[in-house]
Structures are given as structure tokens and as C-alpha cells.
Specification:
Blueprint (H helix, E strand, L loop, with lengths): L1 H18 L4 H22 L7 H7 L1
Length: 60
């Protein structure tokens, strides 16, 4: 458990450091790519477009 926490901390720190030197255009492209990935996942799971994670948690 402690090893997993350390791993997640280090990977999140590197992810945050990777964003620092990015320009606004690069960040916008990354956001668009992530939105596209979410759209693909929603289509594969046949979820409505306005489906939120809160809806999924409360539906269980």
C-alpha cells in the first residue's frame, strides 16, 4: 500500500512538472485529446453525453 502511494505521488509529480514548460497551445491540444478520449469511452459504454461520474457512483 505504501509503495503504491509512493508510486502515485512520484508519477503525479512528474505529470505536473511536464505541464510547466508547455505553451497554452500545447495544453489546449492535450485537453482536446482528453475530451476525445472521454467521448470514445462514453460511446463504447453507451453512456449519455451528460453522464457524470457522480451519476455512476450514486447508481450503484
Amino acid at each position: 500500500m505504501l509503495l503504491r502511494l509512493a508510486y502515485l505521488t512520484v508519477t503525479n509529480a512528474f505529470a505536473a512538472l511536464r505541464l510547466l514548460p508547455m505553451s497554452d497551445r500545447d495544453k489546449d491540444v492535450e485537453i482536446l485529446a482528453l475530451r476525445h478520449r472521454l467521448t470514445v469511452l462514453r460511446n463504447r459504454l453507451h453512456l449519455p453525453e451528460d453522464f457524470r461520474i457522480h451519476d455512476w457512483v450514486t447508481a450503484r
